Amino acid sequence: MTAYDPCAHCEEMMQQYMDRVLTDAERVEAEAHLNECSYCRKRYRFEVKLRQFVHQTVIEPMPVELKRRLANLRTPLE
Asked: Which of 22, 44, 46, 52 could covalently link to 26 via disulfide, CB atoms 3.0 to 4.6 Å apart?
């Protein structure tokens, strides 16, 4: 039997915590761990910034020149 790892458990709950879909008890558990664990807190901040970056790149239009350059890199399917 594997020993309980609170950081691994926090990692498993991270996305659901960020999506706000945890139960109240799970949310309290996640927040308590994030408050006491600097490693998981850093990991959480990274995930928040990553989501913000992905969101920003999705809403910004791609420059026409970049689209053209990417299209020129395509290889035809044969």
From this structure: 22
Separation of CA 1 from chain center = 29
Q: Domain of residue 14: give its range.
A: 6-73
Per residue, what are the HEC states of 37-62? CHHHHHHHHHHHHHHHHHHHHHHCCC
Under 8 Å between Cβ of 13 and 26: yes
* pLDDT tens per residue, range 47-73: 999 999 988 887 878 889 988 998 888
CA distances 1 to 4, 10, 34, 78, Å, are 9, 19, 26, 52
